[in-house]
Amino acid sequence: MQQYESLKSFTREIFEKIGCNKFHAELAADVLLSADLRGVDSHGVARLSGYVRLWEAGRINSSPNIKIVHETPSTAVIDGDSGLGLVVAPFAMDIAMEKAEKCGTGWVSVKNSNHYGIAGYHAMKAIEKDMIGMSMTNASPLVAPTFSTERLLGTNPIAVAIPTENQPPFIADFATTTAANGKLEILQRKGEDAPLGWIQDKQGKGSTNPHALKEGGALLPLGGDRLHSSHKGYCLGSIVDIFSAVLSGANYGPWVPPFVSFLPVAEDLPGEGIGHFLGAMRIDAFRPAREFKSHMDKWIGRFRSAESVDGQEKVLIPGDPEREMEQIRLKEGIPLQEKVVEDLLELKKKYGIPSNF
Amino acid sequence: MQQYESLKSFTREIFEKIGCNKFHAELAADVLLSADLRGVDSHGVARLSGYVRLWEAGRINSSPNIKIVHETPSTAVIDGDSGLGLVVAPFAMDIAMEKAEKCGTGWVSVKNSNHYGIAGYHAMKAIEKDMIGMSMTNASPLVAPTFSTERLLGTNPIAVAIPTENQPPFIADFATTTAANGKLEILQRKGEDAPLGWIQDKQGKGSTNPHALKEGGALLPLGGDRLHSSHKGYCLGSIVDIFSAVLSGANYGPWVPPFVSFLPVAEDLPGEGIGHFLGAMRIDAFRPAREFKSHMDKWIGRFRSAESVDGQEKVLIPGDPEREMEQIRLKEGIPLQEKVVEDLLELKKKYGIPSNF
Q: A260: which of A155, A325, B151, B192 is 20 to 30 A away, CA to CA?
């Protein structure tokens, strides 16, 4: 069990060691640790060594010149200059919110970036300003479209954060697949089978083997199979890919560069880096924020008090589980898997970090 | 089998009979018939008598004063004045596109409207102007959130239409449930069971009974059950509800007025009518339209040529099945169920329409 503050401070030091300035290192650590706090362990410090290896391989620029390459009053395209998505995306979200301040909404498509941590972090920034925040990103191809054996899409998440008055905010943040890779890893460690509908094998047959992905299989779009409307998950993943990358000039579909540094980047790339799409809508561009937020409280109150199925949990509001996890982990610490601790110790040694985590 | 033109002309006459002006009647018929053409039979002329009954019950205003009640350069809220959603939504989409013309994007939330036909119709309007179109709406509560026995959401569809160069456009248009009601009706007629994951019974247990909905059950959010991530479908349906209704001041969640006129409207409504959310993003607010569209062609070409699973169909692009159906039905006519023909004949008699369909 690690304490949030010391883990964050360690992470910040690593980012400084690879050349990030103090502001970027602090920001990147904040984004990364927010995943650990919220229980999305696959997107937190477990990935720190992965970012470092991408930098070592020359695929991440730790002192990027992030800039707007095109804009209108409500839109912008941003070139992340191969920077960490962890700092490029907050820059882009700030632009989206500035535009929303001025003309109601702001929409920013980003190219030439890298993995940006959890989608929800960026969307949530809008809430403090009484805006709705949206965030999506494409990612390494692991998902097969309906009817295909090929991996052409990433888990391409969507996050939407909506402010409230007295209720906690509504925070939806989900991959557009039935299950994300992190859930398969848990089953692999436990030696348990996966439910049908999560993955398929190399031939495209539904599989319960949690290792199927490593053996040439693919994750399945939300829905799982055609009978359960996997084409809708495929639509969602495609929309995320197009908004993030075809709009911005990033790589899309099977051309998205892999997160792991040992896999080669495809040749003849159609774009630059990976892509994100960030949006902000000022509530009072539609109706008075107070009025909206009090209706959100009513909406949430009604859903929270819905009759639940015998023997099942109470009805949850998007964001509930992550918020509860954050409260627990801030107090009790963040549990890390042995392999992650080993990874971090290796980084500590390699980069001569004095502090513990 | 009915011909498109005569069915559309009949529909237009009915709308005129209930008081729509010529322009509105033509528009409403165009929207409604686009569903029949595209194979979404549940949203086409099969609903015509439903609209008429709502008008007869005083719940639809056939000569609405549709107006903007609040706006910024990139947003607007529109009051549909209880008009047909079939005419309110195109009005709202026009505003969204005008705003996109001027400041890059336009986003319109609509209150005090009614059922707006297929979501895709409205999104597709943007394509001709080299814009991405988006369209969503809330609807009568038929869907239970994950863990609940109560119906709190509609099938709340999302449509996204994206322009292309030589490929047909990318048109995603889907309910945020595993299966829409129309698919259950097909099973009811055939006397076949529904797959698990489509519906639950009154107690919230997964059911294969295609009549479960009428017996107090509920449709399930995309994903089907918690193990297959129905909470993601629940998130999507909720986002549609909030963007369409909490942003605009329409009714939301369980308070959305039912489409069928024999069901009473809830008391103490939190808003007015049902809500929609329409959006338009000008492509060249991000990058030159030509460049974007040629990359869309490449995207589509790659997905279309993906290796398919042995014995399954080729990989489809969102919009393919509906476009193919439209070509067939324009040529061969639109097949109507006997019950729908009876309904239309009754309308013909009641409103003294001379022409056949």
A: A325
